[in-house]
Amino acid sequence: MEGVTSFSMIVAPLIGWDTAVIADLITILMLILCYVFLGKEYFKGTIVGGICYMVFFSGFHALGMDLPLFRPAAALLAAVMVGCGYYLCISQGATAVSFDTVALILHEKNERINVAAVMFGINTSVLLLGIFQYGVWSVILGIAFSAVQSFVLNALLKRQLSRKLRKN
Q1: pTM
Q2: What contacts 24+ positions apart, CB below 8 Å, involve 11-20?
Q3: Long-range contacts of the stretch 33-39 (C-beta < 8 A, 24+)
Q4: What subcellular compartments does it reside in (predicted)?
Q5: For labeling, which of 53, 90, 92, 164 is most exposed (least CB within 10 Å)?
């Protein structure tokens, strides 16, 4: 786990605020940054994506489905799925209203900046902040998760770029 939620969980005990309040404030900040730096179309896509996320998350959660997977296999599958989820948002001109917004803004300013690499850097930084609260092993596992997620996202973004270049 990394990103806004993890950052909020790490910062909450340090400043004495509720985790959800911090996450909500950061999410609002990311929405504002999205609108200001990425534009109205990205913002609209982000709002639609956010609503879809809430509906699908709540729906699947309500089903109470359980996949009895070996934990490392489940973590690997989750990392791949998260990477694919980020790709679906980004490829449709939206953000996941997380720190991917920062990566996309930086990429918008300089196309040579690798979105997946920036996300991995931010996520790793957030995870390292939590080393004293959650322990070294948790941080190592989180970084491995983030590495897989970023690898999948990067591969999919490269594939999309390659397709665009072939069309031109």
Answers
A1: 0.86
A2: 13/133
A3: 33/101, 33/102, 33/105, 34/95, 34/97, 34/101, 37/105, 37/108, 38/95, 38/101, 38/104, 38/105, 38/108
A4: Cell membrane
A5: 164
